[in-house]
Amino acid sequence: MDQPTRRELLRTMALGGLALPAGAAGKPNFVFLLTDDQRFNTLHALGNPEVQTPNMDRLVRRGVAFTHSCIMGGTVGAICMPSRAMLMTGQTLFQVHDNLIAPNAAPASAQRPNNTFPELLRKAGYDTFGTGKWHNGPALYARSFSQGGSIFFGGMSDHDKVPLHEFDPAGKYSKEKARIRPGFSSELFSNSAIRFLKERKKDNPFLAYVAYTSPHDPRMAPERFALYSPDKVKLPANFLPGHPFDNGDLRLRDEMLAPFPRTPEVIRRHIAAYYAMISEVDFQIGRVLDTLDQTGQADNTYIIFAADNGLAVGQHGLMGKQNLYDHSIRVPLVISGPGIAKGRTSDSLCYLMDVGPTILDLAGISAPSHVSGRSLRPVLRNQNAKVRDEVIFAYRHFQRGIRTDRWKLIEYNVDGKKTKQLFDLKKDPAERNDIARLPAHAPEIKTLHALLQKRMTEYGDRTQLDADTWPVFGR
């Protein structure tokens, strides 16, 4: 495991546990590596012995891994769109739905600014570079980035046929300008990031945002990453042939990737292909990290690694991410860089939308008052610090949930039929044993239900849990 030097330790101690480096223009650099559909427990260094992720592991050794980082969910089936909007703006799911996804859905009084953290860095003098998947429209991209390359404005495609845009300083992007270039998506995005790191002018601090489309399906990793034999891959402990009840979205696209009922053989094949995609994007991440080291920029650079959402791949009888189980709402999050402790983990609850405010904080920039995300810098300083006591979740208009350090409550309202699930996550981290029907746990359900409603209202959700029907977004 990498160990901090004596000089690094002295700098950290002198600045209250987290050093702010002096680099170009007195500011640190940032490299943000974002994967697509990567579940929280798919890193070798964080306890998955089956998957090979040497470069993600390198980041774990270098920094702090947040083991309970979550997304808030989605108001649409394409979870990555609201997830990336929350990441970029630091706003809640309900704010980004009203402001970015369906801006005419809410009254004008509910509209809030949607500044992105790259946009705020850019205004503060940063060179902001973006490559890869951008799921929130060309206008927001043009505001956020001063440079870029290999830009993908779509939601998904075959990895060897991604329609890419070159950067346009005028921000004029159209489908007609997109071109398919030879190469696998992760390689193309890494190539663009590497060119930027090698060729950029050294006058200004920078942000390099590298958003991969792996390991999102279609799972078609190049042959050299076919490292996993389906008959040797473990079946998840919470594997089921089908979900035990109608959760509201059992026949959407993601769920149709495997036949019903789910079988162990089919799920093992999917897991093997999923792991291959993760190893593929891990390799490309390694190329970016190597370039950062070789160009001498690593010492003054914070590196953030995360994913936009998780994925079921056979757990609870599900294949996709349109649910509120941990496998779909928990994501990897690792932050490394100058002054940050090495090889440490934190189980502090947090959101992916907390990352933008954290980056701004590390850059010495105040987050706007409308931002709901919270800086994770206190946790980077102190292993025992917390920024949230609970996190809430939502999927479309028929699933709501809340979790604390120990409990998770999920509530469903599907065509007027209400269902509750309660899990004791300390005893049952795989969420196999629903204890909502046990009378002894009625007090926990009552407390969590009330807290969930309170937080929903604070975060802009117009749903009332005790109403017979819950409102559809956009109505």
In short:
The protein is α/β, with parallel strands linked by helices and about 475 residues long.
- CATH architecture annotation of the largest domain: 3-Layer(aba) Sandwich
CATH superfamily of the largest domain: Alkaline Phosphatase, subunit A
Q: Write down the secondary-structure element order.
A: HEHEEEHHHEHEEEHEHEHEEEEHHEEEEH
Distance between the termini: 53 Å
Structural domains: how many: 2
Give me the side-by-side strand order of the main sheet.
6-5-9-1-10-12-2-13
Helix content: 25-40%
Q: Give the beta-strand count.
A: 18
Question: Are there runs of 5+ residues with pLDDT below 50, and where?
Answer: 1-16, 20-24
Structural class: alpha/beta
Strand content: 15-25%
The helix tally amounts to 12
Largest sheet: 8 strands, mixed
For the residues shown, what is the average pLDDT?
A: 92
Assigned CATH class of the largest domain: Alpha Beta
Cα-atom radius of gyration: 21 Å
What is the fold-level CATH name, i.e. the topology of the largest domain?
Alkaline Phosphatase, subunit A
Query: What form results from the Cα inertia axes?
Result: globular
Secondary-structure topology with pairs:
Elements: H1 6-14, E1 29-35, H2 54-62, E2 63-66, E3 69-70, E4 73-74, H3 80-89, H4 93-101, H5 117-123, E5 127-133, H6 138-144, E6 147-152, E7 163-164, E8 179-180, H7 185-199, E9 206-211, H8 264-294, E10 301-307, H9 326-329, E11 330-331, E12 333-336, E13 344-346, E14 350-351, H10 355-362, H11 377-381, E15 391-395, E16 399-403, E17 407-414, E18 417-424, H12 442-458
Parallel strand pairs: 1-9, 1-10, 2-13, 3-14, 4-15, 5-6, 5-9
Antiparallel strand pairs: 2-12, 3-11, 7-8, 10-12, 15-16, 16-17, 17-18
Helix pairs in contact: 3-4, 5-10, 7-8
